[in-house]
Amino acid sequence: MAYCRKCGAVIDEEAIICPHCGVEQVPGTYRQNQNDDGSAVWAIIGFLIPIVGLILWIVWHTDRPKSARMAGIGALVSVLAGLIIALIACVALAVFVNTDVNVQMLGLI
Q: What is the pTM of this model?
């Protein structure tokens, strides 16, 4: 069983071009890495330590595409969650500060 050296799709052993992504294949150059299981552990590591997830994605994206994808997704989700939490905190702070100023202006404090 052979895999595309770019997208990781299962292709025929004799394929010259990947039918999924169109990249030319050099016969016998890429075999599935047995450690490339795409485990959720890589997503968790990427989520908890986003810079590690990014580094794993950069290093593994050609040799271990499934694991690299999981690490990259974990890092991306972590960064997006952090941005959303920061945005919510800024909005809550702005509302709190404005409420306190408005109360002071009305002389209620």
A: 0.60
